[in-house]
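Quick one, tokens below:
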């Protein structure tokens, strides 16, 4: 039986200082098609342990959201080239608005990271996860640094995911397709994240998931 205790992990609609990012994304996507820019597709196939933390960014100036995904045993194919095998891989999204500077901020980041999981031979949902890394942005203009120490809570459940979303920041648009067959559990823990462009990000109200994937494919089209 498939169990979905919470809604989709990413925020499909986020209002920041009166702006609706979903509307911006739809408009930007139409522009992408109109100008005929060739898409760049990154496919990531993973199995085994994984973790995710997603939530809000709030301080005196900034409001927004973040989403950190970390996967073990990743095969990454970028732009139709050769597949690169990585022991651990992360994909991070950040987006928001700074009322002090009256500017939006955001980017997507990806690359190899440090990842450790206590999961009893790699076939169960991990009880604890630690992950850290410094990742370049996918457009080459920024870097993000994060640290996570997570613990699973409650009973693991079987789940299947087939998510299709659009993520927009600045002049960039990402179409994200995320399909998986897995065991999962909710979690708690500590998360810190900062970027070169906006500094430390104050995170709160975040949701944690720990996974053991049977199969998983993440497709990001830029």
């Amino acid at each position: 039986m498939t169990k979905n205790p919470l809604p989709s992990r990413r925020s499909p609609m986020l209002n920041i200082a009166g702006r609706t990012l979903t509307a911006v994304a739809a408009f930007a996507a139409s522009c992408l098609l109109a100008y005929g820019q060739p898409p760049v597709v990154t496919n990531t196939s993973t199995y085994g342990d994984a973790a995710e933390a997603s939530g809000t960014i709030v301080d005196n100036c900034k409001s927004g959201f973040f989403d950190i995904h970390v996967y073990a045993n990743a095969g990454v194919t970028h732009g139709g080239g050769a597949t690169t095998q990585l022991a651990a891989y992360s994909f991070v999204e950040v987006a928001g608005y700074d009322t002090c500077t009256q500017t939006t901020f955001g980017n997507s980041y990806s690359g190899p990271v440090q990842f450790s999981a206590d999961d009893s031979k790699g076939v169960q949902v991990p009880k604890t996860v630690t992950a850290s890394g410094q990742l370049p942005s996918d457009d080459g203009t920024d870097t993000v640094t994060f640290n996570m120490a997570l613990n699973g809570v409650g009973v693991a459940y079987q789940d299947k995911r087939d998510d299709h979303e659009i993520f927009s920041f600045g002049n960039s648009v990402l179409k994200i397709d995320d399909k998986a067959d897995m065991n999962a559990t909710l979690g708690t823990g500590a998360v810190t994240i900062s970027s070169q462009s906006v500094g430390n990000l104050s995170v709160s109200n975040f949701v944690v998931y720990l996974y053991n994937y049977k199969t998983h494919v993440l497709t990001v089209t830029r």
